[in-house]
C-alpha cells in the first residue's frame, strides 16, 4: 500500500484558493467581499476601526520614511487640486 502524505495547512489553502479562483469570476469575489465587510461592520464598533487604523498607521510608519509621506502628500494635493 502506498504511503499517503498529509498536506500542510498552507498547501491545502493554496490548492483550495486555486480551485476557487478557477470556478468563480470577479463578481463572486466582489459579492463575498461585500458580505464580509457588512458582517464585520455589524459586529464591530467605531473603536474597533479606530484601533485597526492606528495599528495600520503605526506599521506603515515603521516601514516607510519621510520621503514616502512627502510623496503621498504631494499626490493627494495634486489630486485634490484638479
Helix-strand layout with pairing:
Layout: H1 9-23, H2 26-43, H3 46-63, H4 66-81
Description of the molecule:
- The protein has 82 residues and is mostly helical.
- It has helices at 9-23, 26-43, 46-63, 66-81.
- The longest helix is centred in the middle third of the chain and has 18 residues, at 26-43.
- The protein is elongated, with a radius of gyration of 21 Å.
- It starts with 8 loop residues before the first helix and ends with a helix.
Q: Could you give a quick summary of the protein structure above?
A:
This protein is mainly α and 82 residues long. 82% of the residues lie in helices and 0% in strands.
Poorly predicted parts: none
Class computed from helices, strands and strand pairing:
mainly alpha
Q: What is the distance, rounded to the nearest whole angstrom, between the alpha carbons of the first and last residues?
A: 70 Å
Mean pLDDT across every amino acid position: 93
- Estimated radius of gyration: 21 Å
SSE order, one letter for each helix or strand: HHHH
Number of helices: 4
Q: Largest sheet at a glance? A: none
Report strand %. Answer: under 5%
Overall geometric form: elongated
Q: How many strands in all?
A: 0
Give the helix proportion (percent range): over 70%
